[in-house]
Amino acid sequence: MTITHVLAAVLTCGVLSASVLSAAERHMMQPRVPADKLAEARALTSPLPDSPEIVEKGKSLYSGKGTCFNCHGKDGSGNGMAAVGLDPSPRNFQHHGFWRHRTEGEIFWVIKHGSPGTAMIGFGDQLSDEEIWSIIQYERSFAGEHGHGMTGHREGMGQGMGPGGGMGGMEHRGPRSGMGGCEGEACGR
Fold first, then answer.
1. 20-48 pLDDT per residue, tens
2. Measured distance CA(3)–CA(45) in Å, rounded
3. Three-state DSSP string of 90-134
4. pLDDT single digits (tens) 97-142
5. Domains in the chain, start-ordered, CATH in brackets?
6. Whether the predicted pLDDT of 154 surpasses 50
7. Structure letter (DSSP) for residue 169
8. How many CB atoms lie within 10 A of CB 185?
9. CA–CA dist 180, 145 (Å, integer)
10. CA 163 to CA 155: how far, in whole Å?
């Protein structure tokens, strides 16, 4: 094998890796609520207070009645046993981009009604609204400081655009007032 063949193989692997990462990032940003339901979903907000008790209830539901762990994994990374071969793959709740690009209402809507074009079925006939909101609080815990992202914000993200016409929350805006965290790729956390 010549050096040219080795360099070509390395370059090909690098390009393929970059395109896979790019596709994964695009997948992360894609809304899963149908366009005609997006405004309705974004208007939804949790009636539950943020509390350790609610997170514990959500954890119990995530690992039990809700069966979320089967696809999303016990650690929320989207690698559950039932995730093998699913396209698109289940959402990774550890990824800060997941939380940055959608509202809590969008997440609620998808859990309740399902996600067209994916394997995510609706659980509205198995879980009460309060149980779904509890699960969302637990799912946020997988992302640590980034778990609040856009959740709680009603405007959410449009087709690649953030509130006020930004780039979908990808620019760094420094400390977030009232939340103690920061946002954007340059957050440093």
1. 433 444 466 778 899 999 999 999 999 99
2. 58
3. CCCCCCHHHHHCCCHHHHHHHHHHECCCCCCECCCCCCCHHHHHH
4. 888 889 999 999 999 999 999 999 999 999 999 999 999 999 999 9
5. 32-158 (1.10.760.10)
6. no
7. T
8. 12
9. 8
10. 7
